[in-house]
Design goal:
The chain has 143 residues and is an alpha+beta fold. The chain has a single domain, classed as Immunoglobulin-like, CATH 2.60.40. Helices cover 17% and strands 40% of the residues. The strands form two sheets. It has a five-stranded antiparallel beta sheet, with helices on one face. Strand 7 and strand 8 form a beta hairpin. The chain is globular and about 45 Å long. The N terminus is likely disordered.
């Protein structure tokens, strides 16, 4: 191979190696309601969760909106792994201002990413009158 062609091939090959892979973004949604709590709660509280996972960085960005709670939100968490009628420990604590809309992000572990992709995470919003959770929703793959 001529020297110029060899150099061009080497630059092309090594350029491919240094090209970053494009990240895939997966979307998840949840409808939050009192009826989804375990055990079920009564009340008018409801809400929505929209979350996006960057599969390269494992960064989960989320927005949680809600209305009709019995009082101000005192805590909010991602829980898992658990199905819709199961409970689980806190996977990710949601900090900062808990008034609606709640916006934030968290870097997940490989195990957390796996559980989220399997649909084994739920979001719980707590109030003073319902310290174990007032509204809850299971995260599912969405658009």
């Amino acid at each position: 191979m001529p020297p110029l062609l060899r150099r061009t091939a080497a630059v092309f090959f090594f350029g491919l190696l240094s090209t970053p892979l494009l990240a895939e973004t997966l979307s998840f949604t949840a409808h939050l309601s009192t009826a989804s709590e375990v055990p079920m709660k009564s009340g008018t509280g409801q809400g929505e969760v929209s979350a996006h996972l960057n599969t390269t960085t494992s960064l989960l960005d989320y927005t949680i909106t809600y209305t009709g709670l019995s009082g101000p939100a005192t805590a909010a968490h991602f829980h898992g792994p658990a199905g819709p009628m199961e409970t689980a420990g806190v996977a990710v604590k949601i900090g900062g201002d808990l008034s609606s809309p709640i916006r934030g992000s968290a870097t997940l572990t490989p195990e957390q990413v796996s559980d989220l992709k399997k649909g084994s995470w739920y979001v719980n919003v707590h109030t003073r009158l319902n310290p174990s959770g007032e509204i809850r929703g299971q995260l599912t793959p969405g658009h």
